[in-house]
Design brief:
The structure holds 2 protein chains of 2 kinds. By secondary structure, chain A is an all-alpha fold. Chain A contains 2 helices and no strands. The chains are: A mainly alpha, B mainly alpha. At the A-B interface, helix 1 and helix 2 of A face helix 5, helix 6, helix 12, helix 14 and helix 15 of B.
Chain lengths: 73, 435
């Protein structure tokens, strides 16, 4: 009984991690906002993994626009 | 760790060993999915504040899945020498515990914190076994090896060699150069310097650190026939440090003003779990997130090669028995974990037969289903391992903190080496800059 309560408390605490101030809270809020697969064990568990295979064709903008942009070989 | 009793000792191992049954079950699920017979896999839904949302419209499909799993695993248990009915009796509650693990893990806040079903499945199992004790009627269904190995055969299908080669030299350089070096250095450090008594525990921690966390730990543990406590310890450590690194690495990278693309490659090569890599990489921006994800994907592909090489090394060196009358090649074959053949075979079939034959889109659709099956088998395996684990024995594996020392030293080495490789490959030094 005590163990089940501890498990429930841990789950409840982690479910509220997005409310924490600081780095952990910021990360969790970012993941929540983007609906990211933060628990994936393998790449195929991440939604849209097949898009990674053609990164050059993805519509992304470089965060460093002063750098030359090369396609993936 | 086989469940086959003496009566079945004379029967072919093709029917009595869990290794072969993992190949049959994994192969059957892959074949049914590829043939279009199976078009969906039930799962627990995501939920935020209303727990019933996790099961809305899903109860019947989950029940059908549970009964289906119970039937096929009970047939395997019966043929291996167990009891069909006793297995059935224990399996349904075991499956329900796996559902509980998925239910907790799929709460959006918990999911965003990066604490997945593997953690909850282990915890639920450990909680039962170390409080009220694992009931006897559950024991016949606790076949962690069968579930792990079946999951690994399914995982093999997700290792697409043909696609990874199209991802480019910079990612290959970071992922494939550093990973084997870290694995070997950690193995030598653990066995020679720390003098850890269990080489299997050392190699599991090394694989989890250098390759991709939990999935690599599972593969290598099965390849070395490691104790379940060792896998539990390695997975527990990996899960905790993964969350820490997911949070701290983007902060550190931003604080020192590192090029986000280099930072993304660094994260992809060092953070253990794929989900945490995606989350941490995205904190640096879209491009960095994509680089992180691709580097980790290339590293994921290494699981197959590493599990195979570790299995070969184990049977030819670590478990070598000089007193056997069998020829050397026969000894190797006898001890070789056969499920690895299914694991590698599935990878080769998907990479070089199904993808060219069916097209990438169709294969992606198939893998979305097989990865769901694999998740369920891993979840069942972790619940089973938790139910079989004893906290006292688990603490015995801690060996004065040496596993943690191994992880920390290995991860520090991994961080330094990967940073250097990331600069060389993604900093515009060895290759043209990407993105």
């Amino acid at each position: 009984m005590v163990g089940a309560l501890a498990l429930g408390a841990l789950a409840l605490g982690l479910a509220q991690a997005g409310r924490l101030p600081g780095a952990l809270g910021e990360t969790v809020r970012g993941n929540l906002a983007a609906d990211r697969e933060a628990t994936a064990l393998f790449y195929t568990e991440v939604d849209g993994w097949a898009d990674w295979l053609n990164p050059a064709s993805a519509s992304v903008s470089s965060p460093r626009s002063d750098q030359p942009i090369a396609k993936w070989p | 760790m086989t469940h086959a009793p003496d009566a079945s000792a004379q029967r072919s191992t093709l029917l009595t060993s869990e290794d072969w049954w993992a190949i049959w079950l994994g192969g059957l699920l892959i074949a049914l999915t590829a043939a279009g017979v199976i078009t969906g896999v039930a799962g627990v839904g995501r939920w935020t504040g209303d727990p019933t949302a996790a099961f809305a419209g899903r109860l019947l499909p989950i029940a059908v899945l549970g009964i289906g799993f119970a039937l096929v695993t009970a047939i395997a248990a019966q043929v291996m020498g167990g009891s069909f009915m006793l297995h059935q009796t224990g399996f349904i509650p075991l499956f329900l515990l796996a559902v509980v693990a998925y239910f907790i893990a799929n709460q959006t806040g918990i999911r965003a914190a990066g604490v997945g079903y593997a953690f909850w499945a282990l915890l639920v199992g450990l909680l039962i076994s170390n409080t009220v004790g694992t009931p006897d009627w559950l024991t016949p269904a606790i076949r962690s090896e069968l579930y792990i190995k079946t999951g690994l055969v399914l995982l093999g299908a997700e290792i697409l060699f043909n696609r990874v080669l199209s991802l480019g030299p910079p990612g290959l350089f970071v992922a494939w150069l550093v990973t084997p070096i870290v694995l070997l250095v950690m193995y030598r450090f653990g066995t020679r310097v720390l003098k850890m008594t269990s080489p299997s525990l050392v190699i599991i921690i090394a694989a989890a650190t250098s390759v991709c966390g939990v999935s690599a730990a599972i593969a290598v543990a099965a390849a070395t026939r490691a104790k379940k406590d060792e896998l539990t310890l390695a997975v527990g450590m990996t899960l905790i440090f993964t969350v820490v690194m997911m949070v701290l690495m983007p902060i550190g990278i931003r604080a020192i003003g590192m090029d986000p693309i280099v930072g993304g490659a660094w994260i992809g090569g060092t953070v253990d779990a794929t989900g945490a890599v995606v989350a941490a990489g995205a904190m640096l921006g879209e491009d960095a997130g994509q680089v992180a994800a691709v580097v980790k994907m290339i590293q994921n592909i290494l699981i197959g090669v590493i599990a195979f090489l570790v299995a070969v090394y184990w049977v030819t060196n670590v478990e070598k028995s000089d007193g056997s009358s069998q020829p050397a090649a026969m000894q190797i074959w006898t001890r070789f974990p056969k499920f690895i053949l299914g694991f590698i075979g599935a990878s080769l079939v998907f990479s070089f037969i199904l993808t060219p034959m069916m097209g990438e889109e169709a294969v992606t659709g198939i893998l979305d289903l097989t990865s769901d099956f694999r998740g369920w088998f891993f979840c069942l395996a972790f619940v089973s391992i938790g139910l079989e684990s004893n906290m006292k024995e688990l603490m015995g594996q801690v060996q004065g903190g040496r596993p943690i020392q191994l992880y920390l030293v290995g991860q520090a080495f991994n961080l330094v080496l990967t940073l250097g490789a990331a600069y060389l490959a993604f900093g515009g030094i060895l290759f043209d800059r990407v993105l």
